[in-house]
Structure formats: structure tokens, C-alpha cells
């Protein structure tokens, strides 16, 4: 029930009586409007005043502010009030009370300091987005307008406005580290808290658990989903107002943009919010952001076992218990729910079950997030697996170990500061070394696909800038965005930018050394997975070795490995010519080629067979091999072609 407006009627009648002048043309209309107000609000129940009182209590309004809010509400609630306000203030007011009239109706002189303070930009009515003065001209002639959302609340409609609904997320409480301490901070009156952690950290769920512990509702909004060009200060005012109207705590996910120089001042406004605010981001807290420090806590990512339980809850044990699903991309609980919903949709559309392949597809669509930077972008989304790569046993074992490390990184980080001490990052860095065509790039794709992540390849040609400092800026943007999107960052031909530092002979050497030094430090702080690929390991700066967790060498294939490579690529064909069957052992023994060369040869033979309307046979493979040798500028091996 809406608040009672009966107590305003007598005040309006007194103002109208004071205004009565001989020959006043508006007099009869004012008298008729006052009579209508008396009829409509005589004996009105005051039950709705409880809603007004509770709203005033949540926002900390004093009696004068409460009366001003009621006066502004009256114009929206009853056309007769709007008529009176228009006749008293002029048609330009559009039926809303002027500041002078509103103060007079509330029993306060228009020129009083107390009255003007209540309507100023620092007053609670304006600061919390409840009501404000609109129009031009002197302050006292401006109109007092109540926010539409507050009107809806006072009449019993508590549906958030559309622009906020798209930002609202569901967050289930999740018992996590710092949860109890966060709840105690909120209970003791801390208005702003900052939770930070890498992608997949359950920051919003930790905040929800803290509010649940206190018996308080919570509203979660994801700032990263706000539209481009959005008025961020205005949006924060609307969000804090919405949370207060729902008597809930506010959780701001995706709050990293608030920590930037442009918007850092908004944290001071959040310190004065009507409700407790828990902001969740990936950055560590910047002490310059506010005049006093908030409660700050680092939230580690979920361990593998916890993610597996969440997947199993969403999709059942059969699909949810898959180790690859549970330990791939570092998704938080809310993201897992979104990916699981998308997986169920794909399963229904394609008429199958929610298997691991569909889950990985959904995860990659959710965690990719578009191009990271103009100097880095996603590679073609072609599914790969360990079955697609042929390596010696030791290299394959190290590649498998790299994937296992990445999957269980959350388990290690959850144990404490085992990794990341001394300013070090919590990422994993690997270097793939070996000659051209030995499978380094393919292995990077395999790692990314095994983890359910996108592989983002850095464009080194565009990254390096001739102007001093620009290369470092470009790299910083690439690293930061890669951390934000949770991708595998891939530097191919890494020796072009990660080269050895040299003795300083001129200014160019000095700046080149600075770039390498910056890279060493930034890669050490990186929170994601980095893969460097190089043909010439000796060209890399020696200081990179201790910053690398894995150094995997991709040797030139021996005859046994080459035969496996030939067999792997030939299996991809629709079939071979039974009249001229390929002798893969002879090809492997005679031609010393890399895996990429063998792939090119099989592909060329497939095209030649398609042109001839035949199947691939030994003759086509021999001819394609000869052309590949000529293309590489190499002599054919002695005794070519092989017998077979």
C-alpha cells in the first residue's frame, strides 16, 4: 500500500489559502483541487507509511528528508496534487513542486541552510538517487522530482529497472577462505570490501556466503556486462539504490574498471553507500583509490575437486565427473552454471547427451571473450587432441605434465602462498624449442584444447614498435587482457622479442635491453599460461630459464617417429589406392622430413588425387615428396625414389 498523503492535504490547503487574491483566475481551480484531495484522502489508512518509514531508515533519512520525499511522491501519486503544484508554480513545473514550495509544505523556510542542504548534491536524497532538483534557473525555482524507481517501490512494485536486470546475476553462497572474516567486517559496519583473485575465483559466491551468514539478502551485478558508453557513476548510484530498496547487500562483480585512474574516485562514493558493498575484481587493491582502506582479501580459485562437484551437480556424475571438464578453464561457480545450461541446450538441439565434447565447446565459448588486443587474437577454432600430435615419449610426457599442472593449479594455490611469493605471479610458463615443422605450434593448440581454453597468438611484427616505450605498453595490454579472458598466450618465434641482452654499444642496445628486462618481469607476474616457441633456443636470454616451468624440446623426428607421422596423416584420408598402396616404412626411412613437411606432402597428394579422380597411392606420395624437397631447396636423398 502506498504511503498516506493525508497529512500533506492540510499543508497544501494552508498554502492555497495564503495565496488567495481578489480576482485570482486560478483560485477556483485550486479550490476544486484541494476539495478533491480532501475527499480522496480523508480517513486514509497510514499502513503505507510503514513502507515510507522503512525506506527512510535504510537510506538514513531524517524527518525533513522523509517529508521532502513524500512531497515529491505526491505529485506522481495523485493528479490533484500535480494540479495544485502546477497552479502554484506555473505550467513549466509540469505538476511537480518547486524547491521553495516543497520546503514550505514541510514547514521549513525556503532560505534556511538546513532546507537547502537537504536538496543539495551532497544531501542523502540526491546522493542516493532518491530525488533531486531538475530544470534551470535559481535552485529554489527548480522542481523536486522523485526517481521513477522509488515511486514504483513506494507503491509496492519491486522489479528492478530493465537496464539493471541485464546486469543481475545469481550467486549461490559458497563457503570459502575469508568468508567468515568478511561477514564480521560487514557486521561491524564496514561499508566497502574488496575481494580479488584470478579468473575462476569464487569472489561473488564468497560475498553471498558472508551476507547469508548475517541473514541479509544480496544483489549481485556484473559491471563487465554494462553497455558501451554507459554512465558508470549513474549506474553505481542506481545499483546501490536498488540494493537498498531490496534491503540487500550489493556485490559488484567485474569491478576492475573501477580501479583504473578514470573511475577510482567512485570508490569514495561507495564508502557512503546506503548498504554494504563488496566489489570483486582481479586486481590487487590500489591504496590510492580511497581516503580510507576497505576490507581487502584475496580469494583463490576453486580446487579441481570443488569444480568437479559443481559440474556434477549441474550435469550429473557421468558428464560432470569428467576430469577434463572439471580441471580445464578456471571457471567460477556462476560461469559453470552458465556453461552447463549452454551444454544442455546443445545436447537438446543435437539430440545427444551432455558429453565432455559439448562441455568443452560451451566452456570455450564462455571463456574466450573475443579478440584480446590488436596485436593478439584467437587462432582458428579447430579441435585438436593428443591423438593429433606425434612426439617422442619424453616430450609427450612433459607436454602431458604441463597440462596436468595447469589443471591442478587451483589445488596448489588453495594451499596457500606456495606459488606467488616475492612478487612472483601464479602463472605457468613453458618454452617449446625445436626446428621448423616439429610440432611446436600444434602442441600449443593441444595444450589449449586439453584445458578448454582459447589459444591467443601474439603478432610480434605488430607488437614491436620503433618508438621508445611503446613495445612495453603493447605487451602490458596483451598480458593484462590475456589474464582477464583466461586464455593460453602463445608467442611464436619468441626469440624475435625475447632475445638475449647484449652489451650496450649505442642507444638502440639500451632500449632493446630494457624491453627484454620488462618482459622478464611481466612474464614473472603473469597469472595465466604462457607458451613460447622458438627454433633457436640459444638465442633466448638466459634469465628466461629460471622463469620457465617447462622447457620441452621437439627434436627432428627419427625414422620410427617419421613412420608414425606418415601413418597419422594418411589415416586422415578417405582411403588409399589398393593398386598402389603406400609404403610408409620406405618413405620414413628414405626422406628426412619434419612433421609439417609430411603433412604438406600428404595434403598435396590428396589434391593431386582429387584432380585425377583417383585415390592417393605410393606414386602420388613419391611425386609430392620430390616437389616438397625442391620447395625447401634441398637435394633428394640418395637412391630416390624408394623401392615400394
Task: Set down the secondary structure blueprint.
Layout: H1 6-19, H2 27-41, H3 49-59, H4 63-77, H5 79-89, H6 99-105, H7 113-118, H8 124-127, E1 131-134, E2 143-146, H9 148-154, H10 162-165, E3 168-169, H11 179-187, E4 192-196, H12 203-213, E5 217-222, H13 232-245, E6 248-253, H14 266-270, E7 277-281, E8 295-298, H15 304-315, H16 317-320, H17 323-326, H18 333-350, H19 356-368, E9 376-378, H20 393-407, H21 409-414, E10 428-434, H22 440-450, E11 455-458, H23 460-463, H24 470-485, E12 488-491, H25 507-525, E13 529-534, E14 550-554, H26 559-571, H27 584-590, H28 595-612, H29 618-632
Parallel strand pairs: 4-7, 4-8, 5-6, 6-7, 10-13, 10-14, 11-12, 12-13
Antiparallel strand pairs: 1-2, 3-5, 9-11
Helix pairs in contact: 1-2, 2-5, 4-5, 11-12, 15-18, 18-19, 24-25, 26-27, 26-28, 28-29
How would you describe what is shown here?
This protein is α/β, with parallel strands linked by helices and 644 residues long. 48% of the residues lie in helices and 10% in strands. It contains 29 helices and 14 strands. A six-stranded mixed sheet has the order 3-5-6-7-4-8, sandwiched between helices. A six-stranded mixed sheet has the order 9-11-12-13-10-14, sandwiched between helices. Strands 1-2 form a two-stranded antiparallel sheet. Helix 2 (27-41) runs antiparallel to helix 5 (79-89), helix 26 packs parallel to helix 28 (595-612) and helix 28 packs across helix 29 (618-632). The radius of gyration is 34 Å and the shape is elongated. The relative contact order is 0.06.
